[in-house]
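Hi there,

I know you've been waiting on this one. I reran it after we fixed the sequence typo, so this is the corrected version. Both the input and the resulting structure follow.
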Amino acid sequence: MWDTLVGQRHVIDGLAEAVAGHGMTQSWLFTGPPGSGRSNAAIAFAAALQCPDGGCGECHECRTVLAGSHADVRLVRTDKLSLGVDDIRELVRAAALAPAGERWQIVIVEDADRLTEQANNALLKAVEEPSPRTVWMLCAPTVTDVLPTIRSRCRLMTLATPSTAEVAGFLERSLGVAPELASYAARASQGHIGRAKALARDEDTRRRRRQVVSYPVRLRGLADALRCAEELTAVTKEESDAVTAELDAREKADLDTAYGVVERGRRPREYGPALRELEKQQKSRATRRHRDVIDRGLMDLVSVYRDAIALATGAPADLVNEEIRADVERLAASSTPELNLRRIDWIFAAREQLLEFNVPPQMALESMMVALAGPGAQR
């Protein structure tokens, strides 16, 4: 059960002690970089708290928690850009109820960093004064992503980025991935477990990443910058659409069935508003998913410039992009570490525009690519 927490021994030990009654509290905050396993840690902890044996991984309690079907464990994740006050108020009401079983009522909020200000205020009192048998588990990238008054009332569990060797070993053990492919996926994912799985399993994912990491040596002027921005927008949209299309179709089919559209061949009056609400939610989810995929692409770009800096300065670390070492060497030879540091800053500025200020992706990426291909770019 704890096996999914790759490279997190200190977290596993701390949670196991809490399950045994040492340092247990009713409000927890799990932080860590993307892909480190924040929500997996919270779910495994919830299973251990519900398990009579402290987390055997085999009993009915463990299996239902891990499968997401336990009556007393509620996992909240959002496909929207934010979690609103109505969502949290409903959670707070549910958390105030006594658990159906003999142990805990557990609420896991996977995207605590996406709470609106009103939602944070609604959550504060529940975290501050939880019901006697209620446990709150909040997940966020960093402690600063959570309201100070909330995080001060939580016990903090910080997950680290697992090493390349740890991720590769996990892929070999759990998925049976060949060592060479496991090593590539572990390096390219930069410690992101979900990304590593996708890279190990799917050739299309590997193809899209190869395209993204080719951009630095292709940026020779304005035309190249605009072309690469257009390509990056398209390739990330392709990947996000591949994830959401099947889910959108399934939700639409479920809605049609619920309103009898399939059987009766006509649409009742209530169907129209329900369909519009579904389409609104799906559009919001698609927007968030696209931005998340772009964000991963930007971090792939950062890895190339970091590799170039490492080569230029003689840093002993292995290259993330070993498979394109020749391109990285060209980049290092045709620029300076100082310029590549500025390029990384420009990429992070684009991330901020996308994720914090909701700038349209095409516009943010064009501005970034023009900066990357500006003075000092290869000629």
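Quick highlight: Residues 164-201 form one domain.

Best,
R. S.
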